[in-house]
Amino acid sequence: MPIPKKRKNEEGDKFVQRCMRSEVMKKDYEDNSQRVAICLRQSGQPKPKASLIEQVQESLYNEMYGSEEYVESLENMYIPTDDEYFDLGEEVEEIDLSLAKYAYRDPSTNEIYYFERKSSYKKDGRHLIFMSEASEYQGRKVQLNKPFRTPGGPKKSSVYVKNDKGNVVKVNFGDPNMKIKKNIPERRKSFRARHNCDNPGPKWKARYWSCKAW
Predict the structure, then answer these.
(1) For residue 206, how far is the Cα from the chain centroid?
(2) Which 8-state DSSP code applies to residue 49?
(3) By CB atoms within 10 Å of each CB, which of 8, 35, 169, 212 scores lowest?
(4) What is the pLDDT, as a whole number, of residue 118?
(5) Using N-to-C axis directions, what is the helix angle for 32-42 and 12-21, rounded to 10°?
(6) Are 121 and 145 in contact, with CB atoms under 8 Å apart?
(7) Cα–Cα distance between 206 and 28 in angstroms, integer?
(8) Can you tell me whether residue 70 is helix, strand or coil?
(9) Predicted pLDDT of residue 172
(10) How many Cα atoms are found within 13 Å in the side-chain-facing hemisphere of 109?
(11) pLDDT for 38
(12) Is 68 within 8 Å of 154 (Cβ atoms)?
């Protein structure tokens, strides 16, 4: 079958994503970089820059698996409740947040954040609402390597882990609009084969946790 063609009035990035997902392209061009280059050329960009290829690859990765974000301060980490956590069999490590003194709530997601100083804070452009001095929260701990549900997004679940430099990062993974069907052996085998889950990469990347969930 022929390589996909850009439809009339179809935006370039939308076409590239459709082209990258094409079963024909996946079969004929297993190398991801080569497939990106061909899809970009089909979108009207005959000589795509390496930076653009990386940008498209990153966008597709984030859409498929999730994203990673650095935690700027241990004191303003979101602390999941016990019933939000779930276990995927990883060894858990705890971080003590006893330095946190003030509690703030995200008005959109209702997530609670803790800060060492009282001030005006934002999350994703939203002003956080001051709740109280957080003396009652002293001694609260955040668990590393133990995922938790995130109904407010950006993905179905998140997990705090340490990266290769020892910094804490928050990994967001899982499509919130889809149910995992790993109880169906054929589905599970297909997913793990497509995403090379026998070699899922480091645990500070979203693909590791997507594979772990399957």
Answers:
(1) 5
(2) -
(3) 8
(4) 83
(5) 140
(6) no
(7) 26
(8) strand
(9) 94
(10) 22
(11) 84
(12) no
Q: Phi and psi (nearest 5°) for 112?
A: -105, 135
How many whole angstroms separate alpha carbon 5 and alpha carbon 85?
A: 44
Nearest to 112, CA basis, from 94, 89, 137: 137
Domain locations in the chain?
12-64, 68-213
> Amino acid identity, residue 205?
K
Token pair of 63, please? 């859409």
Of the CA atoms within 13 Å of residue 210, those in its CB half-sphere come to: 30
Cα separations (Å) of 13 from 3, 19, 39, 44?
16, 10, 10, 11
DSSP letters, 102-169, are EEEE-TTT--EEEESS-S--EETTEEPEEEEEGGGGTT-EEEET--EE-TTSSSSEEEEEE-TTS-EE
Q: Residue 212 has which token pair?
A: 């772990």
pLDDT by residue for the chain (214 residues), tens only, comes to 678 888 888 887 788 878 887 888 877 887 767 787 788 888 886 565 666 667 777 777 777 788 888 887 776 788 898 899 999 999 999 987 765 678 888 898 888 787 877 889 988 889 999 987 655 555 678 899 999 998 777 889 999 999 998 888 999 998 877 777 778 888 888 888 888 899 999 999 999 999 999 8
Please identify which residue in the block is written with the tokens 């997507």.
210
pTM above 0.85, yes or no: no
Kindly state the tokens that stand for 174. Answer: 């899982």
What's the distance, CA 56 to chain centroid? Answer: 16
Alpha-carbon 196 to chain mean position? 18
